[in-house]
Design goal:
This is DHA1 family inner membrane transport protein. The chain is mainly α. It has 17 helices and no strands. 61% of the residues are buried.
């Protein structure tokens, strides 16, 4: 494994920790600022929307400098945002800090995916992307549970202070280990946006929004769901997050391995499995053992979609991958925002803490239907030659 992939994974670890740790300390944050749990959910939605907005803007701006310099700048933004969250005197200021930190997220993973893919042979690109995202999954095994424990024991402000330090470590890792790859080849903004003429790019982003939205419908309110419904203690949430993170880790690795061999079949299996798991979670959430097992399965199935969807984007936008890749990371977080909002709506309407799982199952099912449509269009384009659906004559990757 190239050491540069380790550096990218370190940065992903810090970003993954700050993205997900808020869910473990959501009740504590809500209590300190005297807001409701659904209102505190805006710290999830705000972060996610910041990724959606920041990813394309910062990625386009980043075409003017080397990818390494842009990655370093993004880690600097991440550090500032988390430091602001840690010191926030009001809920509004904390929300601003979350949004600032989120600006780095999409562009880092988008640019990092391109860098990772360029470090290895063509047949190992999805695996390389999964290794970078491994930092995100490890964050959910170590960073998020650890941050949740610290937040419950010493206060959530200490948690975000530690996350800012993680960002500094990520900055140093990128500075020392990531090689200079020069500016992106497609340095013109018009060229980068040309990738969005391909309907497959839009389908992939829609699958990402809906599939990952399904995961976050269940996970955003996991702390109150596990304590109020399953009957776990507050301290047990830390270990439940370890289980979720372990599932993410395994799913991400398997997703990268099988996406290099059979990308679309991998998506069919994982999205259908995710929809079923979310549906079952409405019932298994009432049993401590079954709730823990289902939570781990949701993590595995949800994150098994990450490498194939990210690779599909890179293949379909082969002449201008940087912006499309970052936009897909934004799509992940648009799904997060959608799910957090939907979850807050159904909880506030009085349907209970398991109700978001129904919404998540519907989102994942819709993503499965879109994956079937994308596969059908891909087969049609192969049969007719140049892609009719995409509006350009570039072939798609042969290994799909």
């Amino acid at each position: 494994m190239p050491l540069a992939l380790l550096a990218l994974a370190i940065g992903a670890f810090g970003i993954g920790t700050t993205e997900f740790v808020i869910m473990g300390v959501l009740p504590q944050v809500a209590g300190e600022f005297n807001v409701s749990i659904p209102a505190a959910g805006w710290l999830v939605s705000g972060y996610a929307l910041g990724v959606v907005i920041g990813a394309p803007i910062l990625t386009v701006l980043g075409t003017k400098v080397s990818r390494k310099k842009m990655l370093l700048f993004l880690m600097g933004v991440f550090i500032v945002g988390n430091a602001l969250s840690a010191a926030a005197p009001t809920f509004g200021v904390m929300l601003i800090g979350r949004v600032v930190a989120s600006f780095a997220h999409g562009a880092f993973f988008g640019i990092g995916s391109v860098v990772a893919a360029n470090l290895v042979a063509p047949g190992r690109k999805a695996s390389a992307i999964s290794l970078m995202f491994m930092g995100l999954t490890v964050a959910n095994i170590i960073g998020v549970p650890g941050g949740t424990y610290v937040g419950q024991a010493a206060g959530w402000r200490v948690t975000f202070g530690i996350v800012a330090v993680l960002g500094l470590i990520g900055f140093l890792g990128v500075a020392m280990l990531v090689p200079e790859q020069g500016k992106p080849e497609a340095a013109k903004i018009r060229t980068e946006f040309a990738a969005f003429r391909n309907v497959q790019v839009w389908l992939a982003m829609a699958m990402t929004v809906l599939g990952f939205g399904g995961v976050f419908a269940a996970i955003t309110y996991i702390a109150p769901m596990m304590t109020d419904v399953a009957g776990y203690s507050e301290g047990a949430v830390t270990w439940l997050l370890v289980l979720f993170g372990s599932g993410m880790f395994l799913g991400n690795l398997l997703g990268g391995k099988f996406a290099d061999k059979a990308l679309m079949p991998m998506l069919f299996v994982t999205l259908s499995g995710l929809a079923v798991a979310l549906l079952l979670f409405t019932m298994t959430a009432h049993s401590q053992v079954l709730a823990a097992l289902t939570l781990s399965a949701i993590g595995a199935l949800g994150f098994a979609t990450v490498p194939p969807l990210q690779k599909w984007i890179l293949d379909q936008a082969s002449t201008a991958p940087t912006l499309a890749s970052a936009a897909n990371i934004g799509a992940f977080n648009l799904g997060n925002a959608l799910a957090a909002w939907l979850g807050g709506v159904v909880i506030a309407a009085g349907f209970g803490y398991t109700a978001p799982n129904w919404a998540g199952a519907m989102l994942a099912s819709t993503a499965l239907l879109l994956s079937l449509l994308a596969a059908s269009l891909d087969r049609r384009s192969r049969a007719t030659g140049p892609s009719v659906a995409s509006g350009h004559a570039e072939p798609v990757a042969a290994q799909h």
